[in-house]
Structure formats: structure tokens, C-alpha cells
Design a protein that fits this description.
Blueprint: H1 4-15, H2 33-43, H3 52-64, H4 83-93, H5 98-110, H6 119-125, E1 136-137, E2 144-145, H7 146-158, H8 165-177, E3 190-191, E4 194-195, H9 200-210, H10 219-233, H11 238-248, H12 256-278, H13 288-298, H14 327-343, E5 353-359, H15 367-375, E6 388-393, H16 408-420, E7 425-430, H17 438-445, H18 447-454, E8 457-460, E9 466-470, E10 480-484, H19 485-489, E11 492-496, E12 498-502, E13 506-508, H20 510-513, H21 520-523, H22 528-532, H23 535-545, E14 550-560, E15 568-570, E16 574-578, H24 581-592, H25 600-607, E17 618-621
Parallel strand pairs: 5-17, 6-7, 6-11, 7-8, 11-14, 12-14
Antiparallel strand pairs: 1-2, 3-4, 5-16, 9-10, 12-13, 14-15, 14-16
Helix pairs in contact: 1-13, 2-3, 2-4, 2-13, 4-5, 4-7, 7-8, 7-9, 9-10, 9-11, 10-11, 11-12, 11-13, 15-16, 16-18, 23-25
Length: 639
């Protein structure tokens, strides 16, 4: 299976290494830990194992290992410890620095997820799972999740620590999170009483970690293998397919027919991948992780990198202590929060807010002309000419039967408006909390074509270089917020959400849409720490620290009921624009039939001075106010 084409992929990896060491998530970016580890694993036993790029990548990883053994990405969030286990796995597989391996293994055994205790949290999150079983978190002092737990179990088992109590508990955690029907979500099975859909990535990692344990014969594992085979033989996304190949290959046994099936599937997947890789029209850039996984999947049947030798030598452990917040750091945080609370927020309430609106029967009508007309109201306050513009749509998930994402016609119209206005640079970006492969979402929702045709660059916020900013809100316990650097530093940040209901916040509009400019590397998936800090608190703090300069809500077709993913379409036939995110969210809520004063995040954002909520403080600008639509959207569960 190690064909010339696979050798070309290995060559591509070497050619696209960061000159200073390591690999980025996408070519021509700064180095990050996860893609560096996957690339090194892909190049193991190749002719490039002795290359300068291989050596400098190892040096890069060594520089990220702290004195306590915790691995932190360059300029990354110190609490985001999830990459520690990936580096440990890589170091053990490549037989690297024994002292570093001992240090990382020792600290990893001390890291634990928190236990859900409150009755409300148990009701919302813990139905169908055992919340007392501890795995590993994305970041310190948060809930346990499948992916970081799977990597921890994999790396510690590889280090000869299968019998350690924490490892056996991690195995129990992973088995508990597998669904009876097969597959795993990110960490829960239900939310608000609704069964969650399994996700291929976490499921694959879960099965990789369970392979070779006594739990590997559990019926839930076999059901999960059957689920993953759908990703192999009918792939929607090649990245998930490669992960599925790597995990399912370890469960084939002696069945020759299955081996042939997987072998043929690998050939088909690689053929599709080479075609994809050869295309120059990739607004997101070429993914180092995808290339690395393609190489690893090509060897899955003969030299699977995730195969664990149970007889591995046991790593020597040492005393390790989780770092705690110093009294000085704690004091600074308290003082800052008291000051912000005392000042009533760091934003001064403005005068009257303007919200422009246009009624359009469908996306086939002239959306651009509508945007031109609405923008005239805000052109003086929010000039675009000569500015770097960052457009943030809502692309959380894709389902062709539901209006989940901002329609690409609306995004394209905003792009063209910015071009007409003379923007110096236009970037579109998103950081989905549900799917890690943004390329697949772009393609499936139709936005990729728009970006290619308009020659617009796309930024995957989850993997963009982070910007550490003092939290100017005071609602969550976060001292700093880690944003996408490009989004935070843009001259004009434009929030372009969908008009939708939401099962956590009643509505998801401009304010909630900025959840997506926070880094997945810093907070995990599905942006779980921001949820566990209190989703309302996080919305207020994110917008207090970097609010949108302009908001455009796509309400031509909205979503009602069980949003943001499972609701039903509703023809609202409206577009709204404002330079006040609170005012536009309040106005949209009223259109939907909800009282914005009863929607906590809108009320609190208004209270801290981010904009106007009161009806007498908002002036509507439209061609015919008599035709202002009034709806009664079906409420989401719990509202």
C-alpha cells in the first residue's frame, strides 16, 4: 500500500514544515502541537525520519513541555492540557526523550476531569451516563470528554501503564460514553432529554483506546465499528474516513473478506484524497492533519501506528503536581472583576440605536441591493473603505433539510458589498463548536464555492493563531479570553448569524454568534468550557471584550423550535442590519415573538452597556414599516 503517491504525501509534509520547526494545521501558518505530532507519526519509518524537518519538529515539541510536564501550545492557553497526551504518545512511539516521557506520564496521571454535582447539571448533561467516572478534560478543572480521555488512555497504555487505576478508570469512562446503538458524541449521550448523534472522530479515538482491553469485546464496541464503517464506505468527510480506517483496521481479526474490503476502501479513499489535494482552489488551505492521516491510513493494515504492544516497558514515574493559581493571580482576578462590576461594565450606554430591515421573499431576490440600501444607514459610523474586514457567519453544522447555517447567498452579498466599498482585505472565518473539520462544512453548506469564486480567504478560527486578551466582562471566571487573532485584530468585525432559536439561550443571533471567534484549541470541543462557565456568562464576556462592529441577520428563512440544529424552517422573509448587536438581537427577538427582556444574555449585555434593549431606544429603518413582520416562532425545549 506504500505507493509512489503515498511517498509524494510524505514529501509534501516535509516541504510544508514550518522553517523554525514543526507543522501548522494548515500550510503557511505557525506551528501547532497536534499537526506536528500527526506529521511525525506519519513520517515514522520513512526516509524522512533522518531529515532536518523531523529533527526540528521534535525540538519544537520539546520546547512546549513545561517543567511540570504539561504541554502548552506556543502562545496558547496554559489550562488547555489536552495536547499533553498527544505529545506523550508521539514521544513513546518514536522512542524519544525518556525523561520527558516520564514527566508527561506522571503529570497526566494527576489530571482529572471534574464531577457533575448539581441537580440541574445532572438533569441537563448527565442522563444516560455515569458522571462519577472520571476521564480527562480538554482543560484543567473542567468536565471529562471523550477525545482527551481517549488520547490519555492511548498514551498511558503505550507507556506500559495499563494497570494504573487512572487508566482503567479512563477505559471505563470511554465504554460508558459509547451509545448502545453505536458511536460516541463528545462526552454526553443526551442534552435536555434528546439523544445526541454520534460523531465519527470521537468514536474512532474511543475505539483506538479500547483496542486490546477486555472491554473491546463489548457489544457497544461492535455496534460502534458498524457505525464507523459508514464513514469508510460512504464517506461524507475524508478526515473522518481516515480515522475510521485506523480504528476499524484493529478490529478485523482473521476475516479475509473484511481485510479485502478495507484494503479496497483505502485505495478508493486515497484516490479521492489525491484529487482533492491536487486542487488549488482551497480557500482554507491544505490541511497537514488530513495529509498525515491519509499516510497513516494507507499503512493501517500493515503497520497501524495505533497498535499497542501490551508488553511495553513500564515508564518510570515521578512526583507530579498540578499547578494551582497563585494568591497574587487570584487577587488580581478578583480586583479586576470587582472594578468592572463597580463600573457597571466597561462600555458606556449609547443614545438611540438604529436597526435597518428589508423584506425579501427568498434568496433568489437581489440580496446585495438590499444590503447596499441598509448599509447606507451605518456607513458613516462603520466605514469599510481601506479596512480589513472579518466576516463571521454561523456554520455550526450541516443538514440539507434544515436551515442551520447562514445562507451562502447572504455571505456572498456581504462580501460583494465590502468589495464595492473598497475594503483593503476581506476574510471569512468560523470556528464550529460541533465539527472539527471546517473544510467539510464549507463544502456541504455551499460556502466553499462562494469563497473560490470571489477569491476570498477563509480562516478556521479553531486553529488560527490565538490572541490572549484580558476578559473585560465580569460574568464568567475566565481571567482571559483566547480569540482568533485575525478576528480580534480586524478593523471591522461583521457578525452574520442565522435567525434561529436555541435550546440553551432561547435565541441565537449576533451576540451568540461571537462564541465562534473563541479558539477551539483553547476551550476544546464543543467549546465546552465556555458552556460550563455558563453560556450566558461567556456570551457577555466575549462581547464585552470584542463585540461586532456591524451585524447582519439572515432571516429570509429562519429556524424555530428545537434549534440550533434540529428545529424546523420558517419563512421569515427578512434581513436586518445594525451597528448595535444588542439592539438587533432585541429586535429580532420581538419579530420572533419573544420578549428580549426575558432572554438573559440580551438583558445582561444591555445592562453592561453593550447596546440598547428598550423599544423606545431603538429606531427601525425600513422602506415600509407598516409591513414589519410579526411572528410567533415555536419556542425551543425548556422555554
Amino acid at each position: 500500500m506504500h505507493s509512489q503517491s503515498v511517498l509524494d504525501l510524505e514529501s509534501w509534509l516535509v516541504e510544508n514544515a514550518v522553517p523554525s520547526g514543526g507543522w501548522a494545521y494548515y500550510s503557511n501558518k505557525s506551528a501547532s502541537i497536534e499537526p506536528t505530532c500527526l506529521a511525525l507519526l506519519a513520517l515514522k519509518n520513512s526516509k524522512y525520519e533522518s531529515s532536518k524537518e523531523f529533527a526540528t519538529a521534535i525540538t519544537f515539541l520539546e520546547s512546549c513541555i513545561g517543567a511540570n510536564g504539561i504541554v502548552v501550545s506556543p502562545n496558547g492557553r496554559p489550562e488547555a492540557v489536552w495536547v499533553t497526551s498527544i505529545v506523550l504518545f508521539t514521544f513513546v512511539k518514536l522512542k524519544l526523550n525518556a525523561s520527558a516521557i516520564s514527566l508527561m506520564a506522571s503529570i497526566l496521571l494527576e489530571i482529572k476531569g471534574t464531577v457533575t454535582k448539581s441537580n440541574q447539571a445532572m438533569e441537563i448533561h448527565a442522563k444516560g451516563i455515569n458522571p462519577q467516572v472520571m476521564g480527562w478534560p480538554w482543560s484543567l478543572n473542567t468536565f471529562s470528554w471523550v477525545e482527551p480521555t481517549a488520547w490519555a488512555v492511548l498514551s498511558l497504555r503505550l507507556a506500559g501503564l495499563s494497570d494504573n487505576r487512572r487508566v482503567t478508570e479512563g477505559v471505563d469512562f470511554l465504554l460508558d460514553r459509547l451509545m448502545d446503538e453505536g458511536g460516541a458524541n463528545y462526552g454526553n449521550k443526551t442534552v435536555l432529554g434528546k439523544l445526541l448523534d454520534p460523531v465519527p472522530g470521537p468514536t474512532s479515538l474511543c475505539l483506538l483506546a479500547l483496542n486490546g482491553t477486555k472491554e473491546a469485546t463489548n457489544p457497544k464496541v461492535y455496534a460502534s465499528i458498524a457505525y464507523l464503517k459508514q464513514s469508510i464506505f460512504a464517506p461524507l468527510d475524508l478526515e473522518n474516513a481516515f480515522w475510521a480506517v485506523l480504528s476499524c483496521s484493529l478490529y478485523l481479526g482473521d476475516n479475509p473478506d473484511e481485510v479485502v474490503q478495507i484494503e479496497n476502501a483505502i485505495k478508493d479513499l486515497l484516490a479521492k484524497f489525491f484529487k482533492e489535494l491536487s486542487s488549488e482552489n482551497q480557500p482554507l488551505g491544505k490541511s497537514v492533519c488530513r495529509v498525515s492521516l491519509a499516510v497513516l491510513a494507507s499503512k493501517a493494515l500493515v503497520d497501524n501506528i495505533f497498535s499497542i504492544n501490551v508488553g511495553s516497558n513500564k515508564v518510570a514515574l515521578r512526583k507530579a503536581t498540578i499547578p494551582s493559581e497563585s494568591w497574587g493571580e487570584w487577587g488580581k482576578k478578583i480586583v479586576r472583576r470587582l472594578l468592572i462590576d463597580g463600573l457597571g461594565g466597561v462600555h458606556a450606554n449609547q443614545g438611540e440605536s438604529l436597526v435597518a430591515w428589508k423584506s425579501l421573499p427568498s434568496y433568489e431576490y437581489d440580496v446585495l441591493s438590499a444590503l447596499r440600501e441598509m448599509y447606507q444607514t451605518f456607513k458613516q459610523k462603520v466605514p469599510i473603505a481601506g479596512k480589513k474586514v472579518f466576516i463571521k457567519p454561523n456554520i455550526v453544522e450541516f443538514n440539507s433539510n434544515r436551515p442551520i447555517h447562514t445562507n451562502p447567498v447572504v455571505v456572498e452579498s456581504m462580501i460583494r458589498l465590502c468589495l464595492e466599498e473598497g475594503a483593503a482585505e476581506i476574510v471569512v472565518g468560523e470556528g464550529s463548536g460541533h465539527r472539527r473539520n471546517m473544510g467539510c462544512l464549507l463544502r456541504e453548506c455551499g460556502l466553499e464555492k462562494v469563497l473560490i469564486e470571489n477569491k476570498i480567504r477563509f480562516v478556521d478560527i479553531n486553529y488560527d493563531q490565538t490572541k490572549r486578551v484580558v476578559n473585560l466582562g465580569a460574568k464568567s471566571k475566565l481571567g482571559f479570553i483566547y480569540f482568533s487573532k485575525e478576528a480580534y485584530e480586524s478593523d471591522v468585525l461583521i457578525s452574520v448569524p442565522k435567525l434561529k432559536t436555541h435550546h440553551w439561550t432561547n435565541v441565537t443571533l449576533s451576540l451568540k454568534n461571537l462564541f465562534g471567534i473563541a479558539s477551539g484549541q483553547a476551550y476544546g470541543w464543543p467549546k465546552n468550557e465556555l458552556h460550563f462557565q455558563g453560556i450566558v456568562n461567556s456570551i457577555v464576556d466575549i462581547n464585552s471584550t470584542r463585540k461586532a462592529d456591524l451585524s447582519l441577520v439572515d432571516g429570509i428563512v429562519g429556524m424555530q423550535g428545537d434549534g440550533p440544529l434540529y428545529g424546523e424552517p420558517i419563512n421569515a422573509n427578512v434581513l436586518l442590519m445594525s451597528d448595535d448587536p444588542v439592539a438587533i438581537d432585541a429586535t429580532c427577538s420581538r419579530f420572533m415573538g419573544f420578549d428580549p427582556a426575558g432572554i438573559e444574555h440580551i438583558r445582561l449585555c444591555s445592562k453592561v452597556g453593550l447596546g440598547n434593549l428598550a423599544l423606545d431606544k431603538i429606531k427601525l429603518v425600513g422602506t415600509d414599516l407598516a409591513k414589519l413582520p410579526q411572528f410567533r416562532f415555536e419556542s425551543p425545549p425548556g422555554f
